[in-house]
Design goal:
Strand content: 5-15%
Strand order of the largest sheet: 1-2-3-4
Largest sheet: 4 strands, antiparallel
Distance between the termini: 26 Å
Helix content: 40-55%
Structural class: alpha+beta
Shape: globular
Number of strands: 10
Radius of gyration: 22 Å
Order of helices and strands: HHHHHHHEEEEHHEEEEEEH
Number of helices: 10
Low-confidence stretches: none
Amino acid sequence: MDSLTHIALGSAVGVVVMGRRTAVWKAALWGAVAGTLPDLDAFIDQGDPILNMTRHRAESHALLYLTLAAPPLAWGVSRLLREANLFKRWWLALWLALVTHPLLDVMTVYGTQLLQPFSSHPFGVGSIFIIDPLYTVPLIVGVAVALRLKSSRGLGWNMAGLVVSTLYLGASVVAQQQATHVASAALQAEGIAATRLLVTAAPFNILLWRLVATTPTQYFESHYSLLDASPAVRWTAHDRGAALIEQHSNAPSVARIAAFSHGFYRLSESSGRLFVTDLRMGMEPAYTFHFDLGPPDALAGQSPAPTLQSQRPDLRAALPWLWRRMWGEALPPPG
């Protein structure tokens, strides 16, 4: 999720756990700090853009390491605030603020390596977009009211914000299951023998869902809104670059993207250069993680470092389409 959401969630968790044992601003501040800490790994250069992508949300988001980090962090905070008698309570508050960060990230599609160092598997549910105001705003309102009122009533508002945001997260999972059912039925009706199906929330809402199905040679994209008049899914087919995948699948950069994306990727060639694209984030024809790997022949030897070539959508067309499609209007994608 975005940084503002993690700050709001960390603050809300800190205020709930500390209650009236300390000043509300202290609980909100240090909860926000703990809720932000795991994302500091974004400032570490792993060597190339693909490594930066696949190593983000790794050790710094691992439940074991965050659990080990909580006691010394709580010890330092409790001493700094001269509240050594509240060490155990600060320990609980900061531990929860730390671990709820990756647990929330898991609900996005990106990929969070919760089980490092035992496993590098990138978990990603995909039931919520990385920015969703309907999840974040209740948290912000709850914390803001708690800071202003500084009373039991304010703490109640904070708890209510957490409850509402959590219920919204639960609703996203239910909505995703409905969209998955519709997508699976549509694939069967079209006779598409998909090997993988991705159902992930479209930007800023849980009404509209992006559907991606892959076969060994193609990928199919569509969108489904819970408010569609009929659950008709219209797939558009695209080439995955099967011949290129067969030829270059063992190249380290390609293998990393293949594993991190759970197989939702494509290879393409243009102007004598090879490109690998993560199909999970973006929509045709614009994808966030689109990498230039250089000349295909160079992959067999000392290949140049890949470069990120993010493809930005035309927001003037994409945002109005998103709004109208979300409410169930049957529209072709802007791309």
